[in-house]
Every structure is written in C-alpha cells, then in structure tokens.
Amino acid sequence: MTQTVLEITGLNVDYGVGDQAVRAVRDVDLTLRRGEVLGLAGESGSGKSTLAYGITRLLPPPGVIRSGSVRYHPVDGDPVDVMALTPAELRRFRWAETSIVFQGAMNSLNPVHRISTQLLDVIKAHEPDMSAPARLARARELLKLVGISADRMDSYPHQLSGGMRQRVMIGMALALEPQIVIMDEPTTALDVVMQRQILGQLAELRERLGFAVLFITHDLSLLVEFSDRIAIMYGGRIVEEAPAAQLYRAALHPYTEGLLHSFPALRGPRRALTGIPGSPPDLRAMPPGCAFHPRCPRAFTPCDNELPVLGAPADDHPGRSVACWLHRSLESR
Amino acid sequence: MTLSDSADAPVNEVVLEAVGLTKHFPVRKRLRDLLTRTTAAVHAVDDVSFVLRRGQVTALVGESGSGKSTVARLLAQLHPRTAGDLLLHGRSTRVRGGRAFRAYVRRVQLILQDPFASLNPVHTIRYHLTRSLRIHGNAGRSAEDLDKALADLLTRVSLTPPERYLDAFPHELSGGQRQRVAIARALGADPEVLLADEPVSMLDVSIRLGVLNLLRDLKERLDLAILYITHDIASARYFADDTIVMYAGRMVEGGDSETVTKNPAHPYTRLLIESAPDPDRITGAGDAADVGGAADADRGHGEPPSLISPPSGCRFHPRCPHAMPRCTVELPPRHDIGDRPGHWAACWLYDPATVTAEGPGSAAPDADPSVPPPPALIRQDGTASVGDAR
C-alpha cells in the first residue's frame, strides 16, 4: 500500500503577476500515497489552502500556478499530468478522481434545494448513463454511508444540524468513489464532540473504501491523532514532513516544536506554555533566508541569509525530511 | 496616573455574582399558534449561578449553543435578564442604558471573539483607545496626560514601542495585535471584571498562548476578575482557576479546573474530554488510534437538544449512557463530588439514594456496564473512562 497516488513537484502558486505578485506557495514537493491520511498543518496565510486549490486547479484569479507539476497515478493506467488537462478532461477528472470538502462546508450546500436534489445532481453530472432509480439508490446509499437515515433525503439544508450538513458534504465527496479526498479544515466550525464523531466515521470509511485523504487544518493536535503522515507549512513552504507519531515525539524543525507546544494539554502536569513569539510572516515582504528565523529561538548564522532546502536530516531519521539548518550539515547545501 | 491599580481590596473578594440567571428569548408566534396561550421561547440560559472573584479566572466551557455567550452578554447587561439576579459587590444591579449603564461598564468590560470585526476599520488605534479613555474619564486633563495614558495602555498589552502602533489602522496589524488592542481598549475603562468571550479562538494557534499569557499577567498585576468563555476545555485547564461546564443552557459541573479536567464527574464533561484531540492517545502510527476514536464517538451519539422545548429532567439524558428513569423526570440539583472542596455536578449519579434505588444504566440496558462506576468508586480512583483513555 505504498503506491503513490498524487505527486506534486516544485509547485509555485502566485497571487497576481509581475513584481507585485504574492508568492503564496513556494517550491512545494509532496507525495500522497494510496490510502493514507496526509495531514497538512500551518497557520493562516501559510499557503495550505492555496496548495489544495492549486493541485485541483480550482484557484480563482488572480491565483496563478507559476510552475511545477502535479501527477495523478490512477489504479491502472498511465500517470496523468493534472496541469496539462483540457477543461473537458479536467471536468471528468474532478470529483471522479479527486474530490474536495471545503472549509465551512456547512455553507457549501445550496439552501434552496433539497439534499436529494443536490446529491442526485452530482451523480447525474458525472454518470449521465445511470438510470434515475439507480441514482436514487446510490444517493440513499451515500447518506447511509455517512450515518444519516435515508428519510432525511428530502430535507433542506437548514433542517439539518451543522454536523449533519458536514456529513452530507462528505457523502457527496465520496459519490463517485474518488481516489483522493481533499479536506480543507472540514471540522473547524464544529464542536469537539461532533468533530470526533465525523473524524471517526471518516477513518472507518477510509478503511473500507481505501481512498487517500489530504487533510488540511491548523489544529496540529488533531492531526497527530488522526493522520499517518504530517507535513508542516510555513510561509508557503513545507518545512517538515514526518510520520505522525515521530513528528509528535521528536519534532525537528523549531517551528513544529513551537506549534506542538502551543496546545495546552489535558493531562500531565500543568506547565507554563509560551507559544511562538512574534507573528506570522507577511508574504509580500518575506524575511531573507529561512522564513521562520525572526521568530526562531534557535536561529544562528546561515539562517538569516541562506534558505534551507527540504531534505533528509543530517542525523539518521528514515522517512523524514526537514528544511532547517540545524539538521543539515553546511557542506551539503 | 489615571489607571490606578485597585490593590487595596482583599484578595479573592467576590466582585460579580450571578444568582439563578435566566434568559429566554421569545420566539415569534406562527399563525397556527395564535390561539394557544403558551408563548414559545428559546431557553438560552437557565438558572446559572456563579461568582467571579478578584484576581481569579473562571472558565465557562460548552459547545456552541450551550448559552455561554448569552451568559457573557447578560453579565455585560447587553441583554435584559428574564429572571435571577446580578450582584456587583453584593448589590443587585439592573441597568437599561444611559448613565447607569456607563457606570456599570466602567467596572465590567467585555472582550469579543473577533478582533477583525470589533475594531472600526476606518479609525486608528489612537482613536479607539482615546475614546475608551475619554468615555470612562481616564483621559486626564491635558494632552500630555492622554498621551501618557495611551502609551501606558499599549505597554500593558505588550505593544511596544507604543508610537509604532498608535497611528496604525486595524488592517495594518495582525490578528494577535488586534486582539491586544481590543484588550487595551477594555483596560482603558480601568475595569474590575473582564468578560472574555472566546478571546483567542479566531487567532492563529501559535499566538493564542501569547494572548492568554497576557491576560493572566494582567489579572495578576491589576487584580482583575476574568470570565473566560471557551469551547476548548484544555485551554480552560491551562488558563483558568475554576471551570464551569455548561450544556444546553444549564450548568452541569463546576470546580477547580484541574479537578474538573482530571476527574470529570458529569457524563457530559467526560464526553467533552474524551472528544478533545489528544496526541498522547496514539498508540501506533494512526490506524489503531482511529478505531478507538470511532468507538469513542459512538458513545456520545446524538446532538444537543432543541432549546425551545428542552428535554424534561436532566437536559443531557437523551444522550447520556448512564441515564436512569429519574433523569428523565427530575432536574438534578448540584451534588458535591467530595474529591475536592467545591467540585460539584448536577447529575443524579452522585445522589446515593437514587443510585441504590434505581441503579445506573437501568434505563439504558445496552450501555457499557463497566463504565458507570458508583459514586464511591469515582471518589477513590478517578473516573474510569478517562483513566482508560490514557
């Protein structure tokens, strides 16, 4: 189960063109494996949502993908270059191969249409050959999959609670059994109890259907529990990537370390926590060198003028990579 | 010095006390209801009583819709209350605006959740703070006094040097800086009580602690009483001295923060704590933990009830795994848990007479029999369910 399903290399996304462009995503390399949950964490403005929109080519103007490639590997057949798809191919690719659950998905349902209408619409648009009764059966099945009884089919979105609306969105995302589901802060607007219910259900569905999840959130403590691997973004770049448990036990990048120490714990001794001093960088005026160095407690000589590249750390940590001078020998740059 | 430290009062003195605070919002009648006599109402807050003490932080924890923000607005006297009383230094207060309201807000200030919306985008920081100082009579007599007071306010919230921020507009500041300005504005009134309604939930995780630490620091230096409203029970444990848990408009548990999070007594508090993300729960590389998470989720099935016609008896009983027949009819009073002074829960499980008569779980035969330990057991070794999860 270690096949690659999505491969992102050297992705750069800008907002605007020319000198005024804001570089929101910078040189991102990321691999999503089949059936895994890859967590993407970062502060607001770190480019995590932009990355998600970039790889699905959903960026609204003035967002532009400046360079980079996104390759999708179907279960059987040749890899597809997502960046080179024509609009017609892209329409077929979307939802059938990758689906996306948006931030504030609770508000992504159309308030004037019944749940059934909206579910059937997705199926109809992508599988026009399916008969009407078959579509209806499929829609019922989808609702059952996410734990909503089929008699809620004819409800309007306002008749459902926030959690149920979110489940409907997840069900809709799974309508065509995609290989990749991108979730952009899917539970941020929900309460912790509902959040756990939905995440538990998602984990169960993933076991059963075997799709891969790119899970974007700012809540690192949630990711540690829920995902297989975690990538941390800061200032448009990925600064660390590691298996979830390892990242939690021994964070290499000082930013990751800071993030992990920004969450008060429910157990153990009550310690004084400091968070990370300073504020997130301004993407229009990024500090030279490592973007984190003005806030970094362990910054030293090369940090303020030389950019650390994401790579294997100097000391042996298989399967991990980090972009920090602390973990790179100076000769290897 | 316009911002005097009011250190002459005894420590832990009760500043603000809510007694049986209740708020019902009337619901518009529909045509078919015209002939009925009963008026429907959203029971947003029912019978909430607690005290805010000088130099202490009290946290109010609950899901959205549990009425915690309504409590803040009742305390700020932005809503008239339906019933109950509000005592400021032991004297009942009810203000509806005008001079009395202004005198009240001088002592009780509210900090709102969203610093992007609570500052006027067309005015500078200087304007916001000057207004607060002027209205509450802390601006001094001369321009120098005002400048000094402004610089002082910004220094207190660690926005230094003050000159850099005074003439900035809100859009030039980051979220954390804006929230600091909002706190400075509240301090401009030289209050005794700060009501902080989710002060950090709109901020980035890395700067949340900075703002919480600032509030704690201010509490210590200025001897403020702080009501900290949050949905994040872990941050309540970190920041607050006392924690009160609300569910569907009622208080279900209270006590000092450490005890409430370590030995949660009420089934709802336990559900809340089990649901909170906890990285320490992971065993393997994710998959084993996921299965456990799913099992946990099944226990707290269901959703908060409608507040227009809340369930009879305990409002949590439709979701409670330990519900007994009595829970569906009678409202549980506060029972002392006995592990720590001041720890109580509004739950029939802690009434020895009820437990022997009916036995926990008798109304829910399919509930996990190992989970509801008799009260005596809980007192000895902490709650079973949270202990398991560790």
TrEMBL record, chain A:
Keywords: ATP-binding, Cell inner membrane, Cell membrane, Membrane, Nucleotide-binding, Translocase, Transport
GO MF, one example: ATP binding
Gene3D superfamilies recorded: P-loop containing nucleotide triphosphate hydrolases
Keyword hit for Nucleotide-binding: yes
Domain ABC transporter positions: 8-260
Membrane topology: Peripheral membrane protein
InterPro entries recorded: AAA+_ATPase (IPR003593), ABC_Ni/Peptide_Import (IPR050388), ABC_transporter-like_ATP-bd (IPR003439), ABC_transporter-like_CS (IPR017871), Oligopep_ABC_C (IPR013563), P-loop_NTPase (IPR027417)
Top-level taxon of the source organism: Bacteria
SUPFAM superfamilies xref list: P-loop containing nucleoside triphosphate hydrolases
Keyword Cell membrane in record: yes
Places the protein is found: Cell membrane
Similarity-based family: Belongs to the ABC transporter superfamily.
Protein name: ABC transporter ATP-binding protein
Organism of this sequence: Micromonospora thermarum
From TrEMBL, chain B:
Keywords, sorted A to Z: ATP-binding, Nucleotide-binding, Transport
GO MF entry, a single one: ATP binding
InterPro entries given in the database record: AAA+_ATPase, ABC_transp_ATP-bind, ABC_transporter-like_ATP-bd, ABC_transporter-like_CS, Oligopep_ABC_C, P-loop_NTPase
Domain of life, per lineage: Bacteria
Annotated stretches, region: Disordered: 277-313, 355-390
Stored Gene3D superfamilies: P-loop containing nucleotide triphosphate hydrolases
SUPFAM superfamilies: P-loop containing nucleoside triphosphate hydrolases
Bias type Low complexity, positions: 284-295, 359-369
Domain ABC transporter, residue spans: 29-273
Pfam families in the cross-refs: ABC_tran (PF00005), oligo_HPY (PF08352)
Protein name: ABC transporter ATP-binding protein
